[in-house]
Amino acid sequence: MIYGLVVCGIVGCGPAKSEDTVEILLSSNFFQAEDFVSSSSNDVKKSATISMEADSWVSYAIDVPITGRFQVEVMISGDKGSGIWIEDYHENKDGRTYDITGKIENSSNSELISVTKDGSPLRAGKHEIKIHATGGQVEIDWFKFIPMKAHTNTPVILTQKMEQNDWSEWRLVWSDEFEGSGLPDDSKWTYNVGNWGWGNNEPQYYTDKRMENARLENGTLVIEAQKNDGGHDWTSARLTTQGKQSFLYGKIEFRAKVPVGKGTWTAGWLLGDEYIDELSWPYCGEIDVLECVGYEIDDSTGDGLNHATCHARAYYFKQNNQIGSESEVSNMNGEFHTYAIEWYPDVIYGLLDGKRYYTYDKNSNELEWPFFKPQNIILNLAVGGGWGGAQGIDEQWDSHQFILDYVRVYELR
Ligand SMILES: [Ca+2]
Prior knowledge:
The protein is mainly β. It has helices spanning 2-11, 19-28, and strands at residues 30-32, 38-39, 50-52, 57-64, 68-78, 83-88, 98-99, 104-105, 113-122, 125-134, 138-150, 156-159, 170-176, 190-191, 205-206, 214-217, 220-229, 232-236, 238-240, 245-248, 250-257, 264-272, 286-293, 304-311, 323-329, 337-343, 348-352, 355-360, 375-383, 399-412. The strands form 5 sheets. Strands 13, 15, 16, 17, 18, 21, 26, 27, 28 and 30 form a 10-stranded mixed sheet that branches. It has a 7-stranded antiparallel sheet with strand order 14-19-29-22-23-24-25, with no helix packed on it. Strands 2, 4, 6, 7, 8 and 10 form a 6-stranded antiparallel sheet that branches.
């Protein structure tokens, strides 16, 4: 199984490489716990299984063979409630913390067991990573990074004309109207899979091509989060055009109904094609078009708030200086509304039901304006996480639906 994944991930599912190649790749992804480079305390001994106190760490020099998404597998035991999380690039120039696993919980307090997290983004090359112990005493025997999917560049870039004349008009250049049944159109969408926390400690597992979480129904795309499903607290889906087509400029419009319920975090947004790993964000740029959290939506009326935000290296939420605006939306759960941006070469406007309420016009350099490069469209429904879960998750809900009538991209000419 592992061999299959490695061969497929690395040589792009072409002819299998020699067994020697496979073994080198495998060994470069496998780490004995005692091979750490440094530790927060001299108490961590280099024995076959290392033992770490809560809030201590050990670091490793790793050489990642391919850029892509990985499953992290750890052989772990320790106190009840303990676990680890893994930090990438702990000596980064921005002084940020790149958590690429979320908490990997130890569910056994005696025997070593294998625990996995899926979807961690890693760039090929040499990294220094840290394993942090949390919640109690932890023992680790070994860990692995198993390739799930190699990163592929997006082959098609649609660049929209944005000519503002008296006679110019919006013309549709791309859309998904979500007609038909079954899974979403795989010529337009791929899936971001896993439960590594997505940079926000989100607990849900995003599944791959699973009708329970993403399906076409009644001319809409239904993204459904399900509680206690598939061995996870929550499952859901995150669709992206990355790897299919990306977009530069244009009017980009989502017509949607969003779920109520404390804990939900619904999004229709764009992420720079240059996103590869956590280090590449927010340099790659992000444009949030439809973004709402359940605790800001009235469960009974469906009235709530939508947030439009641009994130760039100069202005982003981990510095708490991002530039955004919010708009009140009536019955955003029961009725369709259109959430859109107009993205010009020097300014981005946010619109609700055709009316502008947001302007981002910081464009003096690339740190303010990475928005001269293509972005891909993402649709997802999270449950919990840094913002969505800030006031907890309402336990009365077993499922939530994010319903999209269409996604449309227009140009002005
Ligand atoms: Ca439709």
